[in-house]
Give the backbone structure.
Amino acid sequence: MRKMATRDELLAQALRLAPEDRARLAHELLDSLGDGPPEDVEQAWGDEISRRAQEVLDGTVELVDFDDVLKKMKERMEQRRRR
């Protein structure tokens, strides 16, 4: 009879997967925990988008250039890889 892998063994195997496969696995695992998103999720996202758009129009938020955000994200990812 084959021994079932431990959580640590499964994690080690999962971390060796390609990023796309890890993302798909994570999504499937999260989906397995419940019945999916609440029925009102679309309404909640619509409300959030409206709120954020209004903040931009009102000038109450600081806009950040996408290239700057992308650069910072890449720097953070590189720092995490080095750990």
